[in-house]
Amino acid sequence: MSLQVEKLEKNMAKLTIEVTAEEFDAAIQKAYLKNRSKMSIPGFRKGKAPRQVIEKMYGVGIFYEDAANEIIPEAYEKEVKDCDLEIVSQPGIDVVQIEKGKPFIFTAEVAVKPEVELGEYKGIKVEKKEITVTDEEVADEIEKARKQNAREITVEDRPAALQDIVNIDFEGFMDGVAFDGGKGTGFDLTLGSHSFIDTFEDQIVGKNVGDEFDVNVTFPEDYQAADLAGKPAVFKVKVNKITANELPELNDEFAQDVSEFDTLDEYKEDVKKNLTTAKENRAKAEKEDKVIEAIIEGAKMDIPQPMIDTQVRQMANEFAQRLQAQGLSVDQYMKFTGMDSAKFIETLKPQALKRIQSRLVLEAIAKAENIVASQEEIDEQMEKMAKAYNMEVEKVKELIGEEEKKQMGADIAVQKAVDLVTEAAIEE
User: Fold this and answer.
1) Strand, helix or coil for residue 104
2) What is the domain extent for residue 361?
3) Is the same domain home to 232 and 282?
4) Which has the closest alpha carbon to 10: 394, 308, 333?
5) d(Cα 66, Cα 38) in Å, to the nearest integer?
6) Residues 241 and 297 in one domain
């Protein structure tokens, strides 16, 4: 087996990998043994025909595809492990030579990690952000807590009002004909939530339990169902029940119920403290983003397209996993948003590019500043992982391989680079 490397433009490389004729023949033999039971040859029991007979009947290349699929991943992985390229994309494979009795030759076109030419990364100027928490913000936060601890009561002595929850039956009609998806029974709707289209909820305000009436709406022009988009419709609605949320009284007893504090004043002070901390964290994250954006702007790097494509695929997989955790599939998400897969992929590309650029400049800074992760920092990270997964630290250490430890160290170094440039930034 041998490897030749050809450097291409825009941080691409072509690897030419040659597998010996003997190794290729062994792969063909393996493909034959795997597939012979599927082939019926006159004069032989199924699965008992010799390889030479099958090749004569179906052609000498009958097992080539399976043999190539068998040998390419193994050969590629072995050769790239020993070469000095830092590959950052999936390979584009092209078979150059595939012939019995001759070496098997294929090429793998890959993206390699770009070199970064850093500009200024210390003393980056950013706008200073003042952190203040107003009494109104504290009051709003406490109001949220009141709503979360509200008691639901049945309304019988008045019509429905905004913020009430109405239980309704409804059916939608267009030109007198009911349409799919427009019917619901015993549906709870919060008035003013804008869960329904147009002025649907507004037209229920003022209605009483038992009222039956028409609600006239017009579907938005960009509505996901094309047959309904931009068209008027009438909903037959009946109000079954009205409920309202009764908020708890704002006093010391409320503070004791929702917090660890004995008085309302103490609770308010804690709310203000937490809001301040949240704002400080947001400001810190925004400062980091602005500093890194400025560093990217001043740096030079040529990002190969396959590197972006690989990052996009990774982000798409991460998104799919998050959806799955919420009980949704990608197909359902596409249906809800009116997007197709191509459009969705396009929306990810700018974020993918920024993620790559950020990582590259921060790695370059870590290298320039000789920033590395200490063993203590790696151990501390493992302890955090053990706590998160409710495992023994030693078990985590056993499960994590050398590559994972190396990646962990790189991530720590990158974060230290973030801290370095953020602390060195000048706020004006």
Assistant:
1) strand
2) 264-427
3) no
4) 308
5) 14
6) no
